[in-house]
Request: fold
Amino acid sequence: MAKYDDDFKRQIAELVHNKIKTKSEIYREYKIAPSTVVGWEKKFFGKLKNKENLTEQDIEIIRLKKLLKEKEEEVEILKKATAIFSRNIK
Reply:
């Protein structure tokens, strides 16, 4: 079993807590069990918020973070496509 320092645990917990990544995405990328991530989230952020308890500002932050993540992924795809097409031109 891998041991992780508190900085790493907090970063992973933040990704899930701020709805930037799902527990499933964390599992696929880092092979960390969803139940472990839930424990870290509780440790660093206390009682988990229910969706009905979110403020309008929280909801807007979540929406914007998701949008930012989508745009970052689009930029990466475009970078890769540009590299592929520029090789084919030569």
Observations:
- The chain has two domains: 1-48, 50-90.
- DSSP finds four helices and no strands in the chain.
- The mean pLDDT is 86.
- Residues 1-48 form one domain.
